[in-house]
Design brief:
The protein is of the alpha+beta class. The protein has helices at about 20-65, 85-90, 140-150, 210-215, 260-265; strands at about 70, 75-80, 90-105, 110-120, 130-135, 155-160, 165-170, 175-185, 190-200, 220-225, 235-240, 245-250. It comes from Cryobacterium frigoriphilum.
Length: about 270
């Protein structure tokens, strides 16, 4: 009897895919996912940049439209923080800066810089804090003094931390000229120049002029109220003087981003 060998299985066993190929496929998928994620993040920041530009443009437009008729000038808005969209969703912007280098109020030119922090998207809520600086050159400051009706005819000359001005006093039938040096200070809603020293400029020979100096130092300080140019609730917190400009520092925590709040100006005592 002849024994026939067993017939071979006609269906061959499928070859197994090497593990290294499967691992390479996984790595490729992760790379694609990472690329897509980076593209998504990039697209978000592109959209956010567009949103920032749009928001800044709208803010500039609304501020310009809200300025009083007596105030002219271009205002630039810069919204800080990483993401405008994220800040908007959170309901508050970290910081907004307003810059107006050539603002004119009632004919008085000034350079203005405003920094507002914790600015709510709900315009009915108060802004956390607003700090501003107003720079006036010497001519603008003197225009402000004349418009305030204080010390008519007085012309200040700005110095390093102080200012000088001249005038005349009547003494024993003589008109005596003098020059006074005044120190600036902030007093709520007013810029005040208080005389701290003086000297007589008229030649009175050997006459005693100490009375003239005492009279000058006893004069009322030159006070310039700026409340009528500012939104109600803004107070003056500091002043710094150089020969080039007088810088006033202002602050408020009671402003909102409503037209009524921004256009309701303060008032000066008569």
């Amino acid at each position: 009897m002849t024994i026939e060998p067993a017939a071979a299985d006609p269906t061959p066993e499928p070859a197994r895919e090497p593990r290294r190929k499967r691992g390479r496929g996984r790595t490729g998928g992760l790379i694609i996912f990472g690329v897509l994620l980076l593209m998504l993040v990039g697209a978000f920041f592109l959209v956010d940049a567009g949103a920032r530009s749009f928001a800044q443009g709208e803010a500039e437009k609304q501020i310009s439209e809200s300025l009083p008729a007596s105030v002219t000038g271009d205002v630039t808005v810069d919204i800080g923080g990483v993401s405008v969209i994220a800040q908007f969703i959170a309901g508050s912007f970290d910081q907004i800066e307003l810059t107006a280098p050539d603002l004119v109020a009632d004919g008085v030119p000034a350079s203005v810089h405003v920094v507002a922090r914790d600015v709510p998207t709900n315009t009915a809520k108060y802004i956390g804090n607003v700090e501003a600086t107003l720079d006036f050159d010497q001519a603008a400051l003197n225009s402000l003094i004349q418009s305030a009706g204080t010390a008519a005819g007085t012309e200040l000359t700005l110095g390093d931390g102080d200012a000088t001005y001249g005038g005349t006093l009547s003494l024993a039938g003589f008109e005596v000229g003098y020059t006074a040096t005044a120190t600036p200070s902030a007093a709520g809603d007013s810029l005040v120049f208080t005389p701290t020293s003086a000297e007589v400029t008229s030649d009175l020979g050997s006459a005693d002029v100490s009375g003239v100096v005492d009279l000058v130092l006893g004069q009322q300080p030159i006070a310039v109220c700026v409340a009528q140019y500012l939104p109600q609730g803004v107070t003056m917190t500091g002043v710094d003087v150089t020969p080039e400009r007088a810088r006033i520092t202002l602050e408020s925590s009671t402003l909102t981003l409503t037209a009524q709040s921004l256009t309701t100006l303060g008032s000066c005592a008569a």
